[in-house]
Amino acid sequence: MTETHFDIDTLLAQAGNHDNHDQFHAISTPIYLASNFRHRDLEDVENFDPKKQYSYSRLATPTRNVLQKTLAELEGGAQAFALSSGMAAIQLAFSLFKTGDEIVTSDDLYGGSFRYFDYLTDHYGIKFRQWNGQDYDQLAKLVTEDTKGVWLETPSNPTMKIIDIDRVAEITHQANQKALVCVDNTFLTPVYQRPLAAGADIVVHSATKYLSGHNDMLAGVVVAKTNEVADALAFNFNTTGAVLDPFDSWLLLRSLKTLSVRMQRHTANAQYVAKQLEKLPQVQKVLYPGKGGMISFYVQNRDQVDQLFKRLKIISFAESLGGVESLLTIPSLQTHHDMPEADRLKLGITDELLRLSVGLENPNDLAADLAQGLGN
Ligand SMILES: *Cc1c(COP(=O)(O)O)cnc(C)c1O
Question: Which CATH number covers residue 208?
Fold first, then answer.
């Protein structure tokens, strides 16, 4: 399917179908468990076309190629790359920058991204400037002609602030046409948010989360809007090699087929659970951006947190998000533990803040589980 005018529901359901890799025309894309491919003769090697042929699987392999083509279509980009984890995807995106480059980031990001940015500063001298994700006049002052990239997550993690990607892209590109606006689209997925259409240059995903959606694999994705950026990424992808293997490529392709249906149910469930949480006397505040399956909420004290984790019968006390099973985490001790305490508290990441990934269970059962867990 190369026609991009089809609705995203159709693209997802048809992922990998009508692909001509397989001589038997299987509806489900086959898994090619091959690390290498035979050449016919010397001429075959001399005229090798990496866009059409295969040689060695780090460079390209059929199952991953079908997946990458699908991902590029979903995000509306020129090319996509499937990697072994979300962090590997973030690392690939940052391979476009070098020592001395200035990057502006929003302030409320996945904890692992902060950890990596500190590493990049210490080891490679990349300079990071932080933006609060809300004040666009402040952003206009932060980005200059020296800004090489802007990195953001929206909704933010874990405090669910919404960033206007169009405005960020416009302000950034006005300051420097060549600056790369990068969006981590893990929380909303292309079903709800297409950053490239809003003016961003690069999209990344932890496909460990909603794209795969079953709490059973790790994967990452980078999508580039232009072929120019994609070619630089392709070189680094092949050179550093954190590629997704054929089996996980197939699993992710299979998972994408139900992404739209899953996202709709995650949203319906989360809307209901957010409303029910607001009615509980122990809940101080609920943060829910209206779409997707992620809710953060504050309880009154640490005893309630402890009690809740011990009493839950359906929802698991576990890191990660985006799967069919509902999960509850405490960001201050888990995902954001490596962030300095003062920075954490400034963002509102207290020990009373909990982050819920609402799964696909019955929403009444989920709301009841939280209510009884908090002692109601
Ligand atoms: C989990 C996550 C990552 C990191 O992805 P891994 O697959 O765990 O390496 C990056 N960004 C966001 C928003 C995440 O939730």
Answer: 3.40.640.10
| Domain identity same for 264 and 245 | no
Residue 127 lies in a domain: yes
Task: Supply φ then ψ for residue 41, to 5 degrees.
Answer: -165, -175
Q: Is the peptide bond before 155 cis (omega within 30 degrees of 0)?
A: yes
User: At which of 195, 222, 256 does a domain end?
Assistant: 256
Nearest CA to ligand 1 atom 2: 206
Output the CA 187–ligand 1 centroid distance in Å: 10
- Condensed to tens digits (0 to 9), the pLDDT of residues 287-321 reads 999 999 999 999 999 999 999 999 999 999 999 99
Which residue range forms the structural domain that includes residue 363? 260-373
Of the residues 222, 237, 256, the one at which a domain ends: 256
Task: Give the integer Cα–Cα distance in Å for 204 and 74.
Answer: 12
101 and 214 inside one domain: yes
Instruction: Determine which one of 110, 192, 210, 288 is catalytic.
Output: 110
Pocket of ligand 1 (CB under 6 A): 85-87, 110, 112, 153, 157, 184, 186, 206, 208-209, 218, 220
Say what the pTM is: 0.96
Identify the active-site residue in 194, 209, 225, 344.
209
Structure confidence by residue, pLDDT tens digits, 60-84: 999 999 999 999 999 999 999 999 9
